[in-house]
Amino acid sequence: MAAEAREQRFVFGEVAELYDRARAGYPADVIDDVLRFTGVDPDRLRALEVGAGTGKATLAFAARGVEILALEPSPEMAAVAARNCRELPRVRIVRSTFEDWRLEERGFGLLFAAQSWHWVAPEVRWARAARALSPGGTLALLGHSVRWRGEPLRDELEDVYRRVAPALLTRNPGFPGLHDVDDDAYVDEIQRTELFGGVTSRSHPWSEHFSADGFLDRLATQSDHRLLTDTARGELFAAVRELVSARDGGVDVPHVTTVTVARLR
Fold it and tell me: In the chain, what are the domain boundaries?
């Protein structure tokens, strides 16, 4: 299929198994952060997940006893999520976008989205979230981002992208972390809806070590990299491999997981 005919938010299914292996999960302190905010015993909490992917966050919340209805539009990603959650009777995977899902009003004490909220149509996402939540329910948005702290690798990667794939810098300068992230990206937008109160954003820093193969696997699961032609992606990956392989033992990349929570008024 031609690259221009593929919708960016659905290309993850092309590499569902790789996505499951290469993408980072969610540490305990991030899940604790959300569950503390809800103020509800996890065993009594029913959650709606928007954009489950292969179940990275699904598994983390389900391990605490949360009942989850997880929406995932990609059949390939949903199949991997269903496999990963097959031993969890309180988890149900539904193939649907949030926009197309038949809304279950006031049915959930928690609505969470991990690395996926930006794919939901801005004109409907807040109102639909408010309708899905029970009174006083929690909206939780989770996201991983690279957070450079002056590492030389950042500038070297930018040089590679500028030379080999400059269009990626123009379309999406945020990955592979060429610029700092905005931890409060959703705070103002949530407050402007006047549907939620107690809006809070917190950051959880961590670091991830990559071999050259691991770094390229992560890049191969990024939607903008998926949309490159095979030739362009091959040239970019060859240049990145050369850069990372030159560092004996691989590279350490600093990350931050942002947790933005709010309570339905």
Answer: 3-148+180-208+254-264
Say whether pLDDT at 1 is over 60.
no
- Give the pLDDT of residue 4: 45
Q: Helix 230-245 crosses helix 152-164 at what angle (to 10 degrees)?
A: 150
Question: What Å distances lie between residue 178 and 199, 208, 209, 237, 242, CA to CA?
Answer: 28, 16, 17, 16, 18
Does residue 219 register a pLDDT over 50? yes
Distance CA 13, CA 23 (A): 13
- pLDDT(33) > 70: yes
Cis status, amide bond into 176, omega within 30 of 0: yes
118 contacts: CB under 8 Å, gap ≥ 6: none
Q: Give the percent of the chain with pLDDT over 70.
A: 93
Residue 9 structure tokens:
């938010």
Q: Is 139 helix (H, G, I), strand (E, B) or coil?
A: strand
DSSP, res 187:
H
* 52: CB partners within 8 A, 6+ apart: 58, 70, 71, 72, 77, 78, 81, 93, 116
Can you tell me the mean pLDDT for 202-215?
96
pLDDT score for 3: 40
Domain 3-148+180-208+254-264, CATH = 3.40.50.150
Report the share of the chain in percent with pLDDT over 90.
Answer: 86
Rounded Cα gap, residues 33 and 257, in angstroms: 11
DSSP codes, 51-112:
--TTTHHHHHHHTTT-EEEEE---HHHHHHHHHHTTT-TTEEEE---TTTS---TT-EEEEE
Q: Does the reported pTM lie above 0.90?
A: yes
| CB neighbour list of residue 45: distance below 8 Å, 6 or more residues apart | 35, 38, 65, 66, 67, 109, 110
